[in-house]
Structure formats: structure tokens, C-alpha cells
Design a protein that fits this description.
13 helices
């Protein structure tokens, strides 16, 4: 039987995780990726390392293990927090490609020039190559074309500054500023990174950006503490958009968006790599369902679209709440634009047992998207199928039908009974 050819555009964390998942399912997968054109450093948390491990990105994980001390100056407070890990994105990208090649994924270097659909997808690259596939995974991050129905947050830009300083212990820091906020880091080899995130409007032209950024560093006590005198001079600058964007339609019968191509959030919302992996880890099962069980296409598409939208809102609200914590600058324009976006709904809603209900929703089962009864709560609108192996729908239905809690839990081991009782209590039951 001819296996559908799958082409993944982009070899970042989302594209790599999707490609590896599809390869494990037996599909021939080709990844097209252009090399990163500038040096970049990213601070990641322990949960990102765990996400990379779960995705099978072993070589990439090895590149993400440079621990650094971390401090924060926010809302008038100066805190020294747990360490984060400094990730050289160029080294990391090379490691992702190595993970792909080891798994039997074909990796093609090049920039996409044109995509046409003539029975199959035809992807033309800048070097003249033409690749064909029956299914397309869009994983080119913010470079991916967006539909007109996209949702955008406040227009935001990040200016990354790089220079060479003196070697020293790895360290990173973040601080709030009147016009935005800055993240900064120093590697052990002395390479220094400082990135300011601020409103996209009102900035000087490209030629004026180095001095604009240097001026803001000169006014920062944290910069003076972390870096040497070189930090006060103009440095190389790379500008990139960091506007929060939800792409709109994220899946079709023969294509799917993952990572930042589906939803890109404000960098204050958390680790970008973690966000990319969040939408990508479900994608192979969605694709498998679209190709193997086309009769379930509507279900599979609903599963992916709803989860991308829910993830986007969750991360956007996390960012909103971080902006809201900066009370000392609440009246300034940058902060005011972000304290109320995307909405006023709390990140976590109060438990309400009266709102708990059982409904049929799409779930992942045996490598495919299927439908099952789940428990929908105020805080989990997409539903919860299992709680550590215990199906919750029968428990909730029994209680709603008037059975006592002892009756609905009697067939479970004592340890699971205790776990379910705690969960029920957290939902406001009894």
C-alpha cells in the first residue's frame, strides 16, 4: 500500500516533534528547513526539557542543559529565583536536525518559494528543487502565511542585541521598563544577549536602533550588575515581531498548522518552545486520523482546532496576568494595552459542581482521534476523559443520577478512590 507522503515545512521544535511522531506511525516524512540567519539565545525551564524528552528530541535536549542563575526586577521587587537553562538556538536547531535524521526523516535545506496544489502539493524551493507530498504540515513559525481571519494582540516587537563580553558564570535576568520589559543573559564564554520587548509603533529607523537600545541599557542598574562596560555601547540588533497571533483555521483535510504557525503568543506568556510543543505533540494523531480514518475528519479537525484555540487563550491570559502584576507602571501606555487583553476571564475559574456535566467530545485513543464521554467543568471546557487511568464520566453520571459516592467508587482500589474523592472535592462536590 502506498503511504501518503508528508512534507513538514520548518524544523523548529514544533516541526521536529510532529515529524518524529509521524515517522513513528510509519509515514515517509520530509522536513524542509532554512538555517537560522542570526545567533539567538533563549531561556527555558525544566518543563521544556521534559517536553523535549517526551518528544524524543534527545540530541536537542543535550543542547538545552546550560543552567544559569536567574533574577527578576518586577513591580518594585528584586527577586533571585530558580535557575533557568540557556539555549543557543543555532546549536539547538542543528541538534533538532540530527534527531530527525537519526529517526529516518529526510531533511532538506532550503527556503520555500512557492506552494501549489495540483492533485498533490508541489513545493518549489529557492534552489530550484520541487518536492511533492499528499499532506502538508505548516511549521514555519511566524514566517508562515496567515489567513485573513487571524486574531492579533497588541502590536509588539522584540529587539535582540548581541555582543561579546568577558567570560563569566552563566546568568540571566528580566526587568520591567517604562516602555516595555527586557530579558538578558550572559553565557560562560562571554557572549551577551539583551532583548527588549515593546510597542511596535514609534521606534526609530533601523539605523537608530542600536543607539536606542544602548540608551535603555545605560539606565538599567540590572544591566550594570550583570554585564561590563561593553553593554553600554551600541551593539548588533535583530528586530522581530512578538505580537500574539492566533492563525484562524489551523487544520484541513490534507494540511495542519503546528507551533507558532498556529498560535504565537507574547514572550512574557512563558517559554516559546514549550508553547510550540504543546500544539505539536497532538498533531501526529490528528494527521493519522485524517489519512487513515477520513470518516472521522470533522472530529479530528475539531479536536486540533479547539485545543489550539484553548492553548492560545491560556497562554495569552498568563501573559496578561504577568503584565497585571507590574502595578508600578499600570498607567503607562505599553502596560495598559496588555493588562486587559485578550479578555477579563480569570486564568482559572472557580469550581462549580452545578456546572459539571458529561458530554461526548473528541479524544485521543489508540493513535487516532475518537469520540468518548468526558467530564466538562468550568475550568476544563474541553473535558477530562481520565484521571490517572480512571474514567470520570461514569463517576459523575452516577452521582448526578442520585447514587452515593461510596456506590460509584466501590469497584476502584482504595488509592484511586482517594484520588477521585479529592478531585470531586476540588469541583465543589459534597
Amino acid at each position: 500500500m502506498h503511504e501518503p507522503r508528508i512534507l513538514v515545512l520548518g524544523a523548529g521544535p514544533a516541526g521536529a516533534a510532529t515529524a518524529l511522531g509521524l515517522r513513528r506511525l510509519g509515514y515517509p516524512v520530509t522536513v524542509v528547513s532554512d538555517w537560522r540567519r542570526f545567533a539567538a539565545l533563549e531561556g527555558v525551564s525544566q518543563r521544556v526539557l521534559e517536553g523535549l524528552r517526551n518528544a524524543g528530541l534527545g540530541a536537542a535536549l543535550a543542547e538545552a542543559a546550560m543552567p544559569a542563575t536567574r533574577e527578576v526586577r518586577w513591580n518594585g521587587q528584586h527577586l533571585k529565583l530558580n535557575q533557568e537553562f540557556l539555549l543557543d538556538r543555532q546549536c539547538f536547531d542543528r541538534a533538532l536536525r540530527l534527531d530527525l535524521e537519526r529517526a529516518g526523516v529526510s531533511v532538506v535545506g532550503g527556503r520555500v518559494r512557492e506552494i501549489t496544489r495540483k492533485g498533490v502539493y508541489c513545493i518549489s524551493l529557492d534552489d530550484g528543487q520541487v518536492l511533492q507530498a499528499e499532506f502538508l504540515v505548516e511549521a514555519r513559525g511566524r514566517q508562515a502565511p496567515l489567513a485573513a481571519d487571524r486574531l492579533r494582540g497588541p502590536e509588539t516587537v522584540s529587539l535582540l542585541n548581541l555582543w561579546q563580553g568577558e567570560p563569566g558564570a552563566p546568568a540571566s535576568a528580566v526587568e520591567s521598563l517604562d516602555e516595555g520589559w527586557a530579558w538578558m543573559a550572559r553565557r560562560a564564554d562571554g557572549r551577551c544577549y539583551w532583548q527588549i520587548t515593546l510597542d511596535a509603533a514609534g521606534l526609530p529607523g533601523k539605523a537608530g536602533l542600536p543607539e536606542y537600545c544602548a540608551e535603555r541599557r545605560r539606565g538599567s542598574a540590572l544591566v550594570a550588575e550583570l554585564f561590563g562596560a561593553r553593554a553600554l555601547e551600541p551593539a548588533q540588533v535583530h528586530a522581530r515581531s512578538s505580537t500574539a497571533i492566533l492563525a484562524g483555521e489551523c487544520v484541513g483535510d490534507d494540511w495542519i498548522r503546528v507551533g507558532d504557525a498556529a498560535m504565537a503568543v507574547d514572550p512574557l506568556s512563558g517559554n516559546g518552545i514549550f508553547q510550540s510543543l504543546s500544539s505539536a505533540l497532538q498533531a501526529p494523531v490528528v494527521v493519522n486520523t485524517l489519512l487513515r480514518k477520513p470518516e472521522r475528519a470533522a472530529l479530528a479537525k475539531r479536536f486540533h482546532q479547539q485545543r489550539v484555540e484553548q492553548l492560545f487563550l491560556r497562554f495569552a491570559r498568563i501573559g496578561r496576568d504577568f503584565y497585571g502584576q507590574e502595578q508600578t507602571r499600570a498607567g503607562l501606555a505599553f502596560w495598559g494595552r496588555r493588562r486587559g487583553w485578550p479578555d477579563a476571564q480569570p486564568l482559572h475559574l472557580d469550581a462549580d459542581w452545578a456546572a459539571v456535566r458529561v458530554e461526548k467530545r473528541p479524544v485521543l485513543r489508540d493513535g487516532l482521534v475518537d469520540e468518548a464521554e468526558v467530564v466538562v467543568t468550568a475550568d476544563q471546557p474541553l473535558g477530562i476523559w481520565h484521571l490517572q487511568g480512571v474514567a470520570l464520566a461514569p463517576v459523575v453520571r452516577g452521582l448526578c443520577n442520585g447514587l452515593g459516592i461510596e456506590d460509584v467508587l466501590k469497584d476502584l482500589p482504595l488509592q484511586q478512590q482517594g484520588m477521585v474523592r479529592r478531585w470531586l472535592g476540588e469541583q465543589g462536590c459534597g
